[in-house]
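Notes, p. 3: input format for complexes.
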Amino acid sequence: MRAFAIFLALCGLGFAGAPEGKAVFQARCQPCHGANGEGKEAIAKMFKVEMHPLASKEVQSKSDAELKKVITAGTGKMKPVSGLSGEQVDDVVAFVRTLK
Ligand code: HEC
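Output follows (100 residues plus heme C):
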């Protein structure tokens, strides 16, 4: 509880974009990646790829810059996610970090 209060305080000071990132994630990533980034089987089948869970070592070992590139430039079968501001991309990367 105390840790959560500190977390909220830090967010208030603008240190963490994860809560904003969660909203972006739910709107723009969750339909394919699932609520916890586990990956939707139907999407993986449709694209005929193996989707690494976003919490996995494969994804978490990427740098923030690499994750931003995946979002803004796409990767493999994933198309770039359009219409996000630079700040929203930062926030959603912060949220992806909370999944590990
Ligand atoms: C239309 C479905 C779709 C949406 C929307 C989508 N993705 Fe993806 N994503 C995929 C697929 C499919 C792959 C696997 C691509 C491949 O390996 O060819 C992938 C791969 C990734 C990877 C790389 C995983 C790896 O193993 O290298 C990351 C990170 C990722 N997505 C993050 C996101 C984030 C963050 C968002 C939202 C801003 C998002 N994706 C939106 C379908 C989607």
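The chain has one domain: 17-98.
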